[in-house]
Specification:
single chain, about 425 residues, alpha+beta, Cytochrome Bc1 Complex, Chain A, domain 1, 2 domains, seven-stranded mixed sheet, 12 strands
Length: about 425
């Protein structure tokens, strides 16, 4: 057993599976089985495979029907769910601590014995196709998909929707699902647990349920993303508002400058006291929804501003957003802004980690990217960020990478955006 830092440990089962745990007495138990494969690992012709397999693992196993999977956890008063991201997939359960064995048995059942029955595959395609269509019907989601698609060149998998496209999902076969399922092995899988769990009992049960997994024969190689040149991408849709994403490529998960980027993003659009919210919504009344955020991947990332505004105000809102980005280049943020940003981020982090589920998620994300830091160190790195570092980073990012703007909305609003990035 290896202590990663005080309160968090990792052990390895005889078959090679890693188990990470953070015991917290008298708290609910959260368990997660994680797979180091996400949508960016789908071949282009099988886009949506990882997400579809996530769905299919709930559609029956050799021991349980789909209904029995749900009943096994619902009957305990617990929750079971799953999610697929660009770079990983995970299945998670939250129950009372005394139900460890049942909860882990259900999770192990999902990742070890799925039926992947042909009739269920065809039925679930209809569900996923509805999910894809729903995303296209929601402009605030579609604009983000459009932005990601255009940000990365050469049809890079980071630019594809996680759920895939209608034609690729329709073409998925049982054989393709089984080939991907073969990768659910110790090298690609790990288990996380947080909350009311006794380590010895956790390792005993995990050994019984997951201890004899076989080696994974497949290897995956990820091509680093390459950004496109600056571009304006408009998609007409009959909506009441224009939805905009303005941003640029940023930092990979392992880049130490990401602490400065978090401060930058918080000052820019991270909450009701941020520059974008204050100026665009409170002072100018240009938009109801305005925010900024950063995303990190293994070998890349992005900084993004989102706006939802009236068609006649779209250009001014986008211009003000660009001005605020450029302002970060020109002048350092004030000591008070820096203090408030750090205080907000630290508070959000501490409040967010009150639940066992959030702690389990933090363990999983840290293991995916192999970057385990105790909370105290994370806070210390944020506190060490200076105004000069934030300004230097803004200059680096905006000086090296041109802006990309994607917008979805009515033609009248989109027309006002033409030539914006040339101005």
């Amino acid at each position: 057993m290896e202590e990663l830092y005080p309160g968090v440990s990792r052990a390895r089962l005889p078959g090679g599976l890693s188990v990470l745990f953070e015991p917290r007495p008298d708290r609910p138990l959260a368990l997660g089985v994680w797979l180091r494969l996400g949508s960016r690992d789908d071949p282009a012709e099988q886009a949506g495979l990882a997400h579809f397999l996530e769905h299919m693992l709930f559609k029956g196993t050799a021991r349980r029907s789909a209904l029995q999977i749900s009943q096994a956890i619902d009957g305990l008063g617990g929750d079971i769910n799953a999610a697929t991201s660009k770079e990983y997939t995970f299945f998670h359960v939250e129950v009372l601590p005394q139900h460890l064995e049942t909860a882990l048995d259900v999770l192990a059942d999902l990742v070890r014995r799925p039926l992947l029955a042909p009739e269920e595959i065809e039925r679930e395609k209809g569900v996923v196709l509805s999910e894809i269509q729903a995303a296209h019907d929601m402009p605030q989601e579609r604009v983000f998909e459009l932005f990601m698609e255009k940000l990365w060149r050469d049809d890079h998998p980071l630019g594809r929707p996680i759920a895939g496209e209608e034609e690729t999902v329709r073409a998925l076969s049982q054989t393709q699902l089984r080939q991907r399922f073969e990768c659910l092995r110790p090298e690609a899988l790990f288990l996380t647990a947080a909350g009311g769990v006794a380590p010895a009992e956790l390792l005993r049960v995990a050994g019984e349920k997951l201890g004899d997994l076989e080696a994974c024969p497949a290897e995956f190689h990820r091509e680093p993303p390459r950004p496109n040149a600056s571009g304006l991408y408009l998609e007409e849709k009959e909506t009441q508002q224009v939805h905009l994403c303005l941003g640029l490529p940023a930092l990979a998960r392992g880049d130490e400058r990401r602490w400065a980027l978090e401060v930058l993003s918080t000052v820019l659009g991270g909450g009701m006291s941020s520059r974008l919210f204050t100026r665009i919504r409170e002072q100018l009344g240009l938009a109801y929804a305005v925010s900024s955020g950063s995303s990190y991947f293994q070998d890349g990332g992005l900084l993004l501003i989102y706006l939802g505004t009236e068609p006649g105000k779209a250009r001014q809102a986008a211009e003000v957003s660009r001005e605020e980005l450029q302002r970060l280049e020109r002048e350092p943020i004030s000591p008070e802004e820096l203090r408030l940003a750090k205080q907000k981020m630290t508070g959000n982090m501490l409040l967010g980690l009150e639940s066992s589920h959030a702690r389990m998620m933090r363990l999983g994300g840290s293991e995916i990217y192999r970057q385990h830091l105790p909370l105290e160190q994370v806070i210390a790195r944020l506190e060490a960020v200076s105004s000069e570092q934030v300004q230097a980073l803004a200059r680096q990012l905006l000086g090296e990478q041109p802006l990309t703007l994607a917008a979805v909305g009515p033609a009248a609003g989109l027309k006002t955006l033409e030539g914006l990035l040339d101005a």
